Amino acid sequence: MKYSSLVAGFLFAALALPAAAQSVYTTVLRGSAEEPANESPATGTATVTVDTTNFTMRVEETFSGLVAGNTASHIHCCTATPLAGNVGVATTTPTFTGFPTGTTSGVYDHTFDMTDPSSYNPSFITDHGGTASGAFDALVAGLNSGSAYANIHSSTFQAGEIRGFLTLVPEPESYAMLLAGLGIISILARRRRV
To answer: For the whole model, what pTM was predicted?
Structure first.
């Protein structure tokens, strides 16, 4: 009886954790991730934080070593196969608002209001119900499924010099649930030995 109430306590604690309103996605940007791949020496990182309560998306990018000045940066979504393929631009065109265009290296940090249609490529809105809400839902689904990628284009590599598919970073609550589950397994294993 003592063990079952302890197990119930662990389960209640794990289930009582609040659901996160923010999801964080990251990637490394490189030429070998482009399709077709290229031999650009450039590298970069992208972190995208989506807040589904406030309908915002923060984009943070760093990049260096482009062989020519960049011409655009944005997120493409949603490929038919996760982590593979090419697809149209989902976010602001031709480039993110305030992105340091024409440079070979830089840092970018901007938070977009995802209720504002100007945060999207107009064709992405049209393809997803004709509203910013529909576009936001599609973009979040693409991010969650691994079918959205960050891409930096340059004048030498007009189709994209460096890119990377954005992947979800596990939430701290997921780790707490994992630890609670491991604790339950440990208790049950000890109980069986006794």
So the answer is: 0.79
